[in-house]
Model the fold of this input.
Amino acid sequence: MNKPYSFSIDQMNGIVEETYAKIKNECENLKKNTNCPNEQLVALLSVIASSYAITTEKNEN
Done:
């Protein structure tokens, strides 16, 4: 079983906040340069997020 994880206050006020700002900025750049709708950004972010999702596989014997 995995333990829940939380960022520390220092991380939240540092690297996490910086990363959030960078991701948001890059999404705005994509919208500006490609004229894509928000739904396309949501789809892209979902694909990225899914690569970090925990997957469970059933063993069927």
